[in-house]
Amino acid sequence: MKRFDALKKIIDVIDDQYIVCNLGHTSKELYYLKDSPQNFYMMGSNGLSSSIALGIALTNPKLKVWCIDGAASLLMNLGSLSTISFANPLNLTLIVIDNGVYESTEDQKTHTNRKTKLDAIARAIGFESVFVINNREDIVPTFMELGTGCHFILIKTEPENADVPNISISSKSIKTRFMESISKSNK
Amino acid sequence: MKIDIKIYKIIKDSGINFIVSVPCLLLKEILKIIDDKNEIIYLPVTREEEGVGIAAGAYLGGKKPAILIQNSGLGNSINAITSLLQYYDIPVIFFVSHRGEEEEPISAHKPMGKITETLLDDISIKFWNIHNSKDIFKIKIAIDYSDENKTSVAILLKRSLWSE
Asked: Beta-strand (E) ranges in A18-150?
């Protein structure tokens, strides 16, 4: 499965929710598939998407928050898993896409290529709801099953970027429209 | 009134309603007060850069966030301050205990202690030095500056503040 195909399935099931998306091609593909003011696209600070999503989830317990992170990004900020588990927000799902490489910088291998098992780390660090998805057809049924809770979903994909354009909105607009939509949701 | 409770009151009265922290010996009393009072959403984190990310998320979520860390942790946060907070215009108020100046018993703090103010200048973060109880009125000035300019600021809490 390609990440692009995985993202297509994901956005079908998590319609009208808040998404923090990791930088690089993941954000570009999400932007191309379905741009929304409720998407927060990362452009710098690799590693911090799960932390940002945690901040949003903790301050808005009534909203559902999703983080679409990459395996290498999460490896940069593994402490985040510990903090998420400690805070245990029941409205946050962390989706980690693992294609085994740093694709945006021309495919250097990530540690998940050898022995590192992010799903085992997530369990050991305290996540009670952990899923591993290897096939595209398992995405929708797995996501449909998710109830209230703090979930960790690892999706294994092949390394391949879709040929999509760059994000054409500024960082400041991404922030402003995201905050406006949260503020509207809370009214 | 002890200095720590005074600082807490300034934080509370300023409308800061979300705090992340990494411990420092100098900040221990303030952190305990924040935790005990339970009036502000408070989350201890594993590393300062992560804390900057969480604070940024809290701001996006509608809160007024602050981070309480040591200056050593400021070093861990530089990229997040520039490519997240400044790139997206997200204001976070930094309370930073300034280790490594005179009277510092742990010499490993000295290299970072020496460059802390220059580092903040380099990344264009305006800061206020708090040396003693007479200086603490500046904390409100710093927070007001952050509010008015929608920019991150740092409040450098010096060791002398706790040795009066």
From this structure: 18-21, 39-41, 65-70, 92-98, 101-102, 108-109, 129-133
Instruction: Tell the CATH topology of B3-162.
Output: Rossmann fold (3.40.50)
- In this complex, the residue of A52, A87, A175 whose CB is nearest that of residue B89 is A175
Please tell me which of the candidates B53, B62, B80 has its beta carbon nearest to residue A186: B62
CA-based nearest residue to A61, from A149, A152, A125, A126: A149
Q: Which residue from A minimizes the CA distance to B85?
A: A45
User: pLDDT tens, A71-112?
Assistant: 999 999 999 999 999 999 999 999 999 999 888 888 899 999
pTM above 0.80, yes or no: yes
Distance in angstroms (rounded) separating the CA atoms of residues A172 and B88 = 5
Cα–Cα distance measured from residue B65 to residue B79, given in angstroms and rounded to the nearest whole number: 18
Whether CATH 3.20.20.300 fits A3-185:
no
